[in-house]
Structures are given as structure tokens and as C-alpha cells.
Amino acid sequence: MQSNVMRTICPPERLLLGPGPSNVHPRVYQALSLHIVGHLDPYFFEIMDETKDLLKKTFRTQNELTLAISGTGMAGMEAALCNVAEEGDEVVVCVNGFFGARMSDIVRRLGARAVEVKEAWGKSISLESLRDALSKCRRPKVVAVVNAETSTGLFQPLPEIAQVAHERGALLVADTVSSLGGCELEVDRTDIDITYSGSQKCLNCPPGLSPITVNERAVETIRNRKTSVPSWYFDLAELLKYWSKVRAYHHTAPISMVYA
Fold first, then answer.
1. What is the CATH number of the domain that holds 51?
2. How does DSSP assign 25-44, residue by residue?
3. Tens-digit pLDDT profile for residues 45-61
4. Long-range pairs for 45-53 at CB < 8 Å and ≥24 separation?
5. Range of 170's domain?
6. Which of 41, 111, 158, 226 is most buried, taking the most CB atoms under 10 A from its CB?
7. Are 80 and 173 in contact, with CB atoms under 8 Å apart?
8. Is 161 inside any structural domain?
């Protein structure tokens, strides 16, 4: 029997109208087919710098710590939370859909205390419920919220959530996987401390990268950790050394995905 191991694959063309992945432009397919260079090649550093600048414009931020994590949107979620949450910290998580619940799960795996603000799926988180949850915390470190909940299609405005979080001195971590590029997002103006996204949704790229941006307030929190970031791969301080002029090797970047 002839083996099909080396056969040429020909995926069917689909009109993708789900929550992601989405169809990509022919220019993106063309970029994926370009010559591979090394992850420490000077040419690739130029591409990284261009990508970083484009991400800043997309997030509408001046944050120095703006880069693309190797991985899908869930890589961004885990990176955002594991860099700021430590064992015993109080993290208020807004849960009104599948991905809010996943944030809560990650918080618990980090040994932090997940204080859930629950609403029915498809219903917005109320500011009163959020304030009530924060009032029951001794020292809340983070408020985590999904901006556009993929599981229900609900859009949760962030400005008021940010204000309430900062009133208690907590950082705001926002999941914008389904909203970046499709909904209005002003990271600096809204004062979002950390937000991450995915390449495969409104950005119309293949899945495989998670753009993330972190403001100086959150960077200072990371610097002042009592313990090391529990994930070596998602340690944002180490990743920034590769994405900045330091160019310290961290891991082999997905070259073609950054092209795309």
C-alpha cells in the first residue's frame, strides 16, 4: 500500500465566519512563503522593530513593553497573569463567559486567590458587583476582565472597569483577543495596565502569535515580585530583552508568523 506521508496537501477554501481563525489576505499567505532567516539575523531584527511599532499603533499605546508572544491568545492570557499574580495574591476575576472562567482557573493554578465577580453568560459585569468584590479584598492586586467574550459575543466596556480597579490600587488585565482590530481600543487613554490579543481574529492573521502590551505601572509590579515568574517561557522581562535593542536570545521565534 502506497504511503501518503509525502503527499501534497490541498486544504479546501472556506469562508470563515466563526469567531476565529479568520480568512487572511493573499499578502499574508505570500509573507508566510518567504525565505526563512535566523532569529538573530539583523534583517529579522528590523522586522521585529517594525512589528513592534505596528502593534503600538494597533493598541494605541506608547508602552515600551509591547511585543508578540509565540503562541495563541491563551499564551497571552497565561503570560499576563503569571507575571503579576503571585501565591496568596487576591485577583478579582470578572466571569460572564467561558474565557473569564479560564482566567480564574489560571489564577488558582498560580496559587493566587481568585475572587470571582459572576454574571450570567451574555450579561455585562456591573460596576456595583465589581466594587462589592473589591471591598471584600484586603489588598486586591489585579482585576481581570474579558473585553469581548468570544463564547457569547458580549462586549464589556473597559474605561469604567479600569477606573474602579485603580481606585483600589489594582492592576487591570484585559483580554482583547476578540476585540483588538475590530472594536475601539485605546490602551493608553483607557489606562489599561496589561492587555493581550491573538493574531487569528480581527487582525486577520494565522493563529500563532499573541500581541501583548504592558504599561510602566505593571512593569514596576513585575520588577517588585517577591518570587520569580513561574514560567520561564512567558517571563515578559526576559522576552523584552529579545524584543528590545539588547537582542538577548530567549527562544527561536516563529519567523514566518512574524513576517505575516
1. 3.40.640.10
2. -HHHHHHHTSPP--TT-HHH
3. 999 999 999 999 999 99
4. 45/247, 47/258, 47/259, 48/243, 48/253, 48/258, 51/258, 52/243
5. 26-259
6. 158
7. yes
8. yes
